[in-house]
Amino acid sequence: MLYKKLNLPINLPLTNNKEFEDKFVEDIVNKIIKSSKIGEKSSISLFKNFFENSLSEIINQKLFCIYQEIIPLIFQFKNKNEGLYQLLRFINQINSNIDYLDRLKKSPFTHKNLAKILLFSGFVTNILSRDQKLLEVIQPEYAIRLNGNISYYKNFFEKINFNNLDTETMLDTLRKQNRLLKFQILYALINQEINIDRASTEFSYLAQATVECVLQIVKNLTYNNYKLNCEDFCIIAYGRFGTFNMTANSDLDLVFIYGDKLNKKVYIDFFRNLINVLSTKTAEGILYEVDTKLRPSRNRGPVACTYENFKDYHNTKAYSWEKIALKKIRVITENKFSTKVSHLLNTLNSRPISDKEVALEILKMRVNINSNKKESEKLDKKDLPKWFETKYVAGGQRDIEFLKFFYENKSSLIDQHEIDKKQLLFKRLENIFFKLDQIVNICFMEEKQDSLPSAAISLLINELNEKDLGSLKALVNQGKTDIFNTLNKILESEITQ
Q1: In this structure, what are the phi and psi dihedrals at residue 234, rounded to the nearest 5 degrees?
Q2: 145: in domain
Q3: What's CA 7's distance to the chain center, in Å?
Q4: Residue 298 class from Cβ within 10 Å (0-12 exposed, 13-18 middle, 19+ buried)?
Q5: Quick one: how far is CA 454 from the chain centroid?
Q6: Per residue in 335-385, pLDDT tens?
Q7: Is the domain of 324 the same as that of 175?
Q8: Residue 208: which H helix or E strand, with range?
Q9: Looking at the domain assignment, is residue 467 inside a domain?
Q10: Coil, helix or strand for 412?
Q11: Under the phi-then-psi rule, with left for phi > 0, alpha for psi from -120 to 50, and beta for the rest, what region is 285?
């Protein structure tokens, strides 16, 4: 793969053009990587020669000015090869856009801040390459006033005039606006104006404001179609959206509930329209993936359920893990019916949950306890192939969620003498794992890479107060092992009782 020849944490092709990629490998990769002594001027010359035969003279002249400014900035950093690779990808995406090239030339601050992005994230670089308007965000005069308040994002959407827009234009407008706001958050993090925790909150506020905007659009459409004011509904946010802990690429876990008074078709159409506006892919991408599998019927039934269906399911049929998930939710609609649902949720969450039932369900989720032991032994012997993956791996974020349940409920299945010590450890590991997951989602594009960019690692080390990458890796891998083994002990205690 290309990234191996480049010795970079990138496993994505530069382009879908095979001829282009072969030429890239031949003309640049080998020349840059072969010599550790290659300098700025040589790199600029290589870039120039690489595009010279495939692009017009006018474009090459404009690009040359950009190389001259950006490559020296990239060379100020130890991980210059990462930046050079991303610069190639970036130029390959924008070289046919004359207006973009002209805007890129104008300010040295643009070049400086672009270099930061190139060195940090292929994902953010890709967003920037799609929309020249985003160059405004990395200008020094552009004031990013992320005020820790959802009103900042609501105001942006309220300024959009959707009147007389056809559906496609409306969807594209929403996506462009959301992308601009998301890019502001991403750049503020890369530029160290905000920390990772703050970025998570801002992503969540942006999602909330976007959903509220879409909700109003869909309500208007529904009212026009059915000539009624249907407020007998509620939307519940689960998971990271529910707890304001979203990452850059989090989907929206939603459950839709409606009353029993009006025609079922009204509400089903209403919620389907809402999902379509949020998740339909256009030329400008999508707003958010929407996951509705946490509803009582999961993926087998209607997209929404009645109040009575929801109440009955959680009173009589819900699994223990669903009861735990119910504690990480919030109602995101405001009406009388939503107030009614909120009261129901408070009642449901006040009921005790059997730790033994939870333990048995976890056991069922796993293949068997013996295979888990074998996997744990592997964790003790060597690092995981991708040490920074924490969400769905053994000893990762999912296992922490289960451990939190047992410790917060002071379960009889755990050693009470260790409870305070373990709680502090797991709380710290939960924070570390979440920040790692946030950075992975910011740095990578569609495929996961084999390592994190150096700039992202530096940010993590600083935020987590670790000594260096080796210390961070050791902490993460040992943490996974401790979490995995501790949860296994709890599960084993259930078996023996």
Answers
A1: -150, 145
A2: no
A3: 26
A4: exposed
A5: 19
A6: 999 999 999 999 999 988 888 888 888 888 775 444 544 554 455 444 444
A7: yes
A8: helix 196-226
A9: yes
A10: coil
A11: left
Cα 487 vs. chain centroid, distance in angstroms?
A: 27
Q: Which two tokens stand for residue 135?
A: 């160059």
Cβ distance 191 to 124 under 8 Å? no
At 374, list the tokens. Answer: 């074998």
**Helix, strand, coil content of the chain in percent (nearest 5):** 65, 5, 30
CATH of the domain at 192: 3.30.460.10
Residues 370 and 301 in one domain: no
**Residue 131 in domain:** no
Q: Contact 184/177 with Cβ under 8 angstroms?
A: no
105: domain range?
A: 2-123
Compute the distance between CA of residue 43 and CA of residue 38 in angstroms, rounded to an integer.
Answer: 7
Backbone angles phi, psi at 428, to 5 degrees: -65, -45
Nearest to 76 by CA among 123, 48, 39: 39
Beta bridge partners of 285: 282
Dihedral sign from CA coordinates of 164, 169, 170, 176: negative
Q: Do 241 and 297 share a structural domain?
A: yes
Residues contacting 385, CB < 8 A, separation 6+: none
Helix (H) or strand (E) holding 331: strand 329-331
Q: How many domains does the chain have?
A: 3
pLDDT tens-digit readout, 308-319? 999 999 999 988
The SS3 assignment for 185 reads helix
Question: Which of 319, 351, 383 marks a domain boundary?
Answer: 351
Helices 151-158 + 196-226 axis angle, to 10: 40
Q: Do 367 and 339 share a structural domain?
A: no
Per-residue pLDDT reduced to its tens digit, 19-58: 444 455 445 545 554 545 567 887 888 788 777 777 888 8
Name the phi and psi angles at 318, rounded to 5: -65, 140
Please compute, for residue 492, the number of CA atoms within 13 A of its CA located in the half-sphere on the CB side: 11
Amino acid identity of 361? Answer: E
Phi-psi category of residue 357: left, alpha or beta, with phi > 0 → left and psi -120 to 50 → alpha: alpha
Contacts of range 285-288, beta carbons closer than 8 Å, 24 or more positions apart: 285/175, 285/179, 286/175, 287/174, 287/175, 287/178, 287/210, 287/214, 288/207, 288/210, 288/250, 288/251, 288/252
Question: For the chain, how long is the longest CA-to-CA vector?
Answer: 78
Residues 6+ apart with CB under 8 A from 124: 117, 183, 186, 187, 190, 442
